[in-house]
Amino acid sequence: MSTVAFIGLGAMGSRMAMNLHAAGHSLRVFNRSKEKTKQFADKGIEVCDSPAAAAKGAEFVCSIVSDDIATREVMLGAAGVIGAAAAGTIILDSSTNTPAMSREAAKAAAAKGVIYLDAPVSGSLAQAQGKELVILVGGDKAAFDKAQPLLMAMGRMVRRIGDTGAGATLKLINNMLSASLTAAIAEAAQVAEAANLDRDATMEVLNEGAAGSRLMKTKLPKIFKRDFSAQFQLELMDKDLRYFLALAQEQDRPAPIASLVRSQYQAARRAQFGKLDSCAVFLQAAGEKPKT
After folding, report:
1. What stretches in the chain show pLDDT beneath 50?
2. Is residue 212 part of a domain?
């Protein structure tokens, strides 16, 4: 078993870290807000006061924070991981970052003899809890192979997509598709309700049709029930769409559908729905307020 530093104990990260602990790895953790470290301290897991303190002496560092800004601080800041990690340390960054951020962190890590892998995850809270995440990895193959015991303790499918930034690129593509389908489901739900269709029958038929998917099975019932408790926060999806559009521009590829979908999520976020589930894009389109 390995010594692992885990940075970022939000909804996803806390579950991923606990799965590493359950697999027998020696864990030390850091989170910006201390209240999220309590469940780890209660299990005798070392709580550190900075990313640097957690990274010192660790064989692996796992991180999952909100965006490029947080990643730059955690990785490259004065109390960051890369400045403190020993040569040979492998970083697994599961944050949803831009490919450019991944390449920047990897370059800084390489200068210290540290290996940085972008390793974002696909899945929400249930998948994180059940070790059923899909993990998309970009970077050095030898480091990817060495990290397999950790990756498989958190996910059901682990794939190396290519060189540095490849995992981040595919994650943004994945989230653009997820956001677009969720927005389409929200639009369909409005019409189904306006037409007074039987909701149970509607869900059953749509799940059996060509558009049936995990998102259809999870998001359509949430919309019909007006249950917008967050599985994946709308404001994070909005951020990921923004990153995808920057990526498309970088690659000189048109993205008219993603641009339209992003405008819907942006409007919903600005309407104060950002902390709700991504399917709360329905509320903005329908002109509704969430039930309290």
Report:
1. none
2. yes
Residue 291 lies in a domain: no
- pTM score, whole prediction: 0.95
Q: Does residue 10 share a domain with residue 148?
A: yes
| HSE (side-chain half, CA atoms, 13 Å) at 20 | 31
55 and 142 share one domain: yes
Which residues are known to be catalytic?
A: 171
Decide if 239 is inside a domain. Answer: yes
Tokens of 66: 């909100």
What is the domain range of residue 181?
Answer: 169-286
Say if residues 58 and 5 touch (Cβ distance below 8 Å).
Answer: yes
User: Are 182 and 50 in a shared domain?
Assistant: no
Burial-class residue 292 by CB neighbours within 10 Å (0-12, 13-18, 19+).
exposed
Number of folded domains that form the chain: 2
- The tens digit of pLDDT for each residue in 122-164 reads 998 999 999 999 999 999 999 999 999 999 999 999 999 999 9
Q: Mark out the alpha helices in 25-159 (DSSP H runs).
A: 38-41, 51-55, 68-76, 81-84, 99-111, 125-129, 141-146, 148-154
Please tell me the predicted confidence (pLDDT) of residue 292. Answer: 62
Q: Which residues of 148-168 are buried (b: 16+ CB within 10 A; e: fewer)?
A: eebbebbbeebebbeebbbbb
Q: What is residue 205's predicted lDDT score, i.e. its pLDDT? A: 98
144 and 209 share a domain?
A: no
Angle at 127 between CA 247 and CA 99, to 5 degrees: 15
Q: Are residues 186 and 268 in the same domain?
A: yes
| 43 and 96 part of one domain | yes
At 255 the three-state DSSP class reads: coil
